[in-house]
Amino acid sequence: MNKPKPLISAILNLNLHPKPLFSNPIHLMALTQTRTTHSDPPQNDAEDDVLCSNPEQTQEEQPSSPSLDETPSFVGSPGKYLTGVSRFERAWAHWTKLGRPKLIVAPMVDNSELPFRMLCRKYGAEAAYTPMLHSRIFNENPKYRSEEFTTCKEDRPLFVQFCANDPDILLEAARRVESHCDYVDINLGCPQRIARRGYYGAFLMDNLPLVKSLVEKLALNLNVPVSCKIRVFPKLEDTLKYAKMLEDAGCSLLAVHGRTRDEKDGKKFRADWNAIKAVKNELRIPVLANGNIRHMDDVQNCLEETGADGVLSAETLLENPALFAGFRTSNWVADNEKDSIDGKLDQADLVVQYLKLCEKHPVPWRMIRSHFHKMLGDWFRVQPQVREELNAQSRLTFEFLYGLVDRLRELGVQVPLHQKDDASATGNLAEVIGI
C-alpha cells in the first residue's frame, strides 16, 4: 500500500529516524539474579494469563539474554549526586545522551507492553514506559516477572515503572532491571481505587516523607537514574514544593500529569498545562508533560505552552498508535475536514502489525484482547456482531484474530486515519518508519 506522510517533525525538531526492527524479547526470568526469599503466591492458570507464544517452542529456541554485567547507561556512579550542582548536570547529560526524546509512550497498566511499545516506536515514539509493575509481586513471583516485563535491544530509551511503598522492596525490584533500562520510574500518580487499597501511586501524596525515602533509596543505590511520575495538588504552591522535594531527593527526571488525584476522567477534566509550566520553571532537571495530547497539534502546543522537554500520551495512543507519526482519528478532524487527507492507513492495518509483533514478542492474551477492543472500537460500533464474536471467544488464537480483521473488511468497514494536508511541513512516512 502507499505509505502516507507524518506531521511536522521538522517544526518540533523531533529527529524521527528509522529504527531497526525487532530482536527477540528478553524475558526477565532469564536476565535477573534469583534472589527470591518468599514463597511464590498461587499461580493463576486462567486463559488470559497464558502467553501468546507457541507452546511447542523449545528451550533451545529461546533467545539468548544479555549479560547482567553490561555497563549501565547512566553518566556517573550511584550515591554521589544528592549534593552539589553536578547532580543536575548529570541528569541533563543522561537525557542528552538518550537524544532528548520528545514523543513518549506513557505507562499504562496491561497496555504499554513490549509489542505495543514497538508499534508506537515504529510510528514515531522516541521513548516509552513499561506498564506499572508491582514491586513486591515482581520480587516474589517469577511468573509475574517473566510475563509482565519483556524487552529487546531496540526497546530503548526505556523507563521501567514500579509502584511501591517500601524502599527496600523497591530497591530489590529496581536492581533486577537496572541493566536493561534507562530510568527506573516510581509511580506516584495512579489515582485508581486499587492504588488506594494498595497504598501506592497518587495516594502517597499524603505521606511525603515516605515518597522522599523511596526516591533517596534508589538514587543512592542504583547505577541508572531515578524518574518519577506525579499528579498535581489542587494548590499550585503544594505542587511546586512536592516537585522540588523530589528533585532534592535525587529524582533526575519528572513527568507531571496536569490533573489532580480526584480528576480521574480525562474527558471531563482538562489537564492544567499552566501547573506543568510552573513546575518546569521551578526545577533544574528535565520535565515531561502529560495530559490533553490527542494529536500532533496538541504536542506542539503543549511543548510551546509548558516549555516541557517532552510529552507523554496514553489513552489516545491506545486508539491510535500512529499518533506520533502525524495520524489522527476521525474524532479530531470533524471540525477541520478541509485541512485533512486520508492517511492511507487505518486501525485495522495497525492491529495486523500489532499481532505480528505479538507473535515475535509473546505477551498474555488479555493484553492482546484489550488492544483489539481499543483500536477497533469505531469499527465494532459499525458492526457490533463482530465485537460479540470476539467477546464470545474464550480462547484466542492468532488465526481467529487475523480472520476477525478480514471479516470486518469483507463487511465493508473502513474508518481511515487522517493527516493534515500540509505537504510543506511533512516528510515521507516510509523513510521515517522504515517500511
Automatic annotation (TrEMBL):
InterPro entries: Aldolase_TIM, DUS-like_FMN-bd, tRNA_hU_synthase_CS. It is an enzyme of class 1 (oxidoreductase). SUPFAM superfamilies: FMN-linked oxidoreductases (SSF51395). It holds the Pfam family Dus. It catalyses: 5,6-dihydrouridine(17) in tRNA + NADP(+) = uridine(17) in tRNA + NADPH + H(+); 5,6-dihydrouridine(17) in tRNA + NAD(+) = uridine(17) in tRNA + NADH + H(+); 5,6-dihydrouridine(16) in tRNA + NADP(+) = uridine(16) in tRNA + NADPH + H(+); 5,6-dihydrouridine(16) in tRNA + NAD(+) = uridine(16) in tRNA + NADH + H(+). GO terms for molecular function: flavin adenine dinucleotide binding; tRNA dihydrouridine synthase activity. Its cofactor is FMN. Residues 54-70 have a biased composition (Polar residues). Gene3D superfamilies: Aldolase class I. Its EC number is 1.3.1.88. The keyword NAD applies. It comes from the Eukaryota. PROSITE patterns: UPF0034. Keywords: Flavoprotein, FMN, NAD, NADP, Oxidoreductase, tRNA processing. Signal peptide: none annotated. Residues 105-394 form the DUS-like FMN-binding domain. Residues 35-74 are annotated as: Disordered. Belongs to the Dus family. Dus1 subfamily. PANTHER family: TRNA-DIHYDROURIDINE SYNTHASE, TRNA-DIHYDROURIDINE(16_17) SYNTHASE [NAD(P)(+)]-LIKE. This is tRNA-dihydrouridine(16/17) synthase [NAD(P)(+)]. It comes from Gossypium gossypioides (Mexican cotton).
